[in-house]
Amino acid sequence: MWHAEMVPREETGPEHLPGAVGGVTRIAQTVRRPTGPWTPAVHELLTYLHDNGLRGIPALHGFDDEGREVLEHVEGRGVPIDREIVLDTVLVEAVTWLRDFHDLVDGFRPEGVRTWRGPGAVELGADQIICHHDPGAYNWIIQSGHFVAMIDWDMAGPGRPIDDLAFLAWTAIPLYRATPTSEVARRLDLLVEAYGEWGPMTVLEAVIARMTTASDRIEAGQARGDQGFLNLAKVGEPQRTRDRVAAFRLRLPEIDAAL
Ligand SMILES: Nc1ncnc2c1ncn2[C@@H]1O[C@H](COP(=O)(O)OP(=O)(O)O)[C@@H](O)[C@H]1O
Ligand SMILES: [Mg+2]
């Protein structure tokens, strides 16, 4: 049986891992992350996914003596989305993973209320699944040129599958900045094909809805004093996303014409 305490701290000193929200530390082959009221539901979800054979998620190792959650440190590298556009092959691998995750998580239907970070204590609606809700390329691990894992499950909670696909498209095509229209159309086709459910314009309409919701959630999180959301104010959120969505909306007709 694996215990977090079995990894000697002296082996590799704690290393701060910068993320959007912050507070993540690596110790040897583990990461230690802050917890919150959402943690039990997220752990129940990760355990279900692991037990049912989903690849590409960090193994869960419980809690350490400081009460932080302990997860497997997945070997590889992250994606600095402002400086890197992932290869077509990596985009397709990540979307294929998202489809596998959604197909599997459709069977995860906990009875009664669970507390999730976004909506708080809610029941899973009959027409909903548990989404990742933050499957941006900055939460992917790439190993030897391949997508190998989706990390950062704190935002998981009830939603519609297209919400995750839209969020992924926003950061990985990418749509949040001025990617040439021909590239947007080409990579959107790859994404649509790999997921195999909705056409390109349906996904783009969902992007506007999803990223508007993202801005609203950040604003609400800041208003209720959630430290993770407050940290996002340092990079100008939620106004930064609102401005980007407005700019993207203006490009829609041009992208539509290029499809
Ligand atoms: N399980 C993991 N395996 C490898 N690297 C990780 C893992 N979890 C986090 N990291 C690294 O730490 C960074 C921040 O962690 P993340 O869980 O994304 O937190 P944040 O909420 O701050 O974005 C990630 O961008 C990634 O580089
Ligand atoms: Mg992250």
Helicity range: 40-55%
Q: Give the strand line-up of the largest sheet.
A: 1-2-3-5-4
CATH class value of the largest domain: Alpha Beta
User: How large is the radius of gyration?
Assistant: 18 Å
Query: How far is it from the N-terminal to the C-terminal residue, by CA?
Result: 53 Å
Arithmetic mean pLDDT: 94
Structural class: alpha+beta
Q: Report the sheet-strand fraction.
A: 15-25%
Specify the number of helices: 7
Molecules bound to protein: adenosine-5'-diphosphate, magnesium ion
Q: Sheet with the most strands?
A: 5 strands, antiparallel
Number of strands: 11
Stretches with pLDDT under 50, minimum 5 residues: none
CATH topology-level fold name of the largest domain: Aminoglycoside 3'-phosphotransferase, Chain: A, domain 2
The best one-word shape is globular
Q: What count of structural domains?
A: 2
Which architecture name of the largest domain does CATH use?
Alpha-Beta Complex
Task: Give the helices and strands as they follow along the chain.
Answer: EEEHEEHEEEEEEHHHHH
Task: Summarize the structure in words.
This protein has 259 residues and is of the alpha+beta class. It folds into two domains: 4-72; 88-258, Aminoglycoside 3'-phosphotransferase, Chain: A, domain 2 (Alpha-Beta Complex). It contains seven helices and eleven strands. The protein has a five-stranded antiparallel β-sheet with strand order 1-2-3-5-4, covered by helices on one side. The longest helix has 24 residues, at 200-223. It is globular and about 55 Å long. The termini are far apart. Bound molecules: adenosine-5'-diphosphate and magnesium ion. The site of magnesium ion has 5 residues, from loops.
